[in-house]
């Protein structure tokens, strides 16, 4: 048993040693961080983006990054700053959320440019949950010819309170002015404790299911969607709406939102199959 634990510990050390922590200056006062690993020559680089308020260390993207790196793909796993320089832990619902979806899009664009400047000419992007929506929003606003395919894992709009949404939209200022007051909203698993200004909240809440499906119809790069059949975050109605988008959907039986346990390996295998199409 001790020998097995020692081997596992050494494997963790080796895996950790392969990733280089890299930084970009998002603004004069804000630094973004990511893990970057080199891969085999000729392989496309894969960008993996975490979900709601998480970091690059969050599964399933962190585990998928390990698997793809082992297969020879160069990988970049950024942590969206969400307004926090060198952020290394998830943000709480009660933190002050002044960041916007447009801020996230600009950061994603900066990381893509960072890869292009390193010589990468073929980029695959994979996002989990709200990270998948962020990638879709980024490419809708800033199409980039270097991005050749996107894979959206457990993609879903963020759950919001309909009454709060209508009220925030009605109160949205039309003219520039003082910073709007902070309010408490319901967003995803943050139940009436997501602290944000109305414009910051709306930047995410405006991306409804209809917005996602509309973007899927407009985007000009190949798209794959991966869902778990036991995902409690995704409603049957949302899955039916996605099906009508005609984007290929891979359904992994009995997997939940985070593809825990044995389903992690099936997610890795299915994504690897999709990426093989980009090797030639």
Mean pLDDT across all amino acids: 91
Proportion of strand residues: 15-25%
Count of helical stretches: 9
Outline the low-pLDDT stretches.
Answer: 1-17
Q: Helix amount, in percent?
A: 25-40%
**Intertermini distance:** 43 Å
User: Largest sheet at a glance?
Assistant: 8 strands, mixed
- Which descriptor suits the 3D outline? globular
Report the radius of gyration as a whole number of Å: 19 Å
What is the strand tally?
A: 10
Order of helices and strands: HEEEHEHEHEHEEHHEHEH
Task: Report on the architecture of this protein.
The chain is of the alpha/beta class and 280 residues long. It is 38% helix and 22% strand. It contains nine helices and ten strands. The strands form two sheets. The protein has an eight-stranded mixed beta sheet with strand order 1-2-4-3-5-6-9-10, sandwiched between helices. Strands 7-8 form a two-stranded antiparallel sheet. Helix 5 (162-171) packs across helix 6 (198-205). The radius of gyration is 19 Å and the shape is globular. Residues 1-17 have low confidence and may be disordered.
């Amino acid at each position: 048993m001790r020998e097995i634990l020692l081997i596992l510990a050494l494997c963790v050390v080796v895996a950790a040693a392969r990733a280089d922590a890299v930084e970009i200056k998002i603004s004069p006062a804000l630094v973004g961080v990511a893990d970057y690993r080199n891969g085999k020559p000729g392989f496309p680089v894969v960008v993996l983006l975490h979900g709601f308020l998480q970091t690059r260390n969050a599964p399933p993207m962190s585990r998928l990054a390990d698997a793809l790196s082992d297969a020879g793909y160069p990988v970049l796993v950024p942590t969206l700053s969400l307004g926090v320089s060198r952020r290394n832990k998830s943000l709480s619902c009660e933190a002050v959320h002044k960041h916007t979806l447009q801020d996230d899009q600009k950061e994603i664009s900066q990381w893509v440019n960072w890869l292009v400047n390193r010589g990468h000419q073929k980029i695959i992007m994979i996002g989990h949950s709200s990270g998948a929506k962020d990638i879709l929003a980024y490419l809708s606003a800033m199409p980039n010819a270097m991005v050749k395919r996107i894979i959206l894992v457990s993609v879903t709009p963020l759950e919001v309170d309909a009454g709060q949404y209508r009220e925030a939209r009605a109160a949205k200022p039309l003219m520039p002015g003082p910073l709007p007051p902070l309010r408490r909203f319901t967003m995803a698993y943050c139940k009436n404790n997501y602290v944000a200004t109305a414009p910051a909240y709306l930047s995410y809440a405006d991306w409804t299911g209809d917005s996602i499906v509309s973007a899927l119809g407009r985007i000009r790069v190949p798209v794959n969607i991966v869902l778990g059949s036991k995902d409690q975050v995704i409603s049957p109605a949302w899955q039916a709406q996605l099906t009508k988008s005609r984007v290929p959907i891979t359904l992994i039986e009995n997997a939940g939102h985070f593809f825990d346990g044995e389903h992690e390996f099936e997610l890795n295998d299915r994504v690897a199959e999709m990426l093989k199409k980009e090797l030639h």
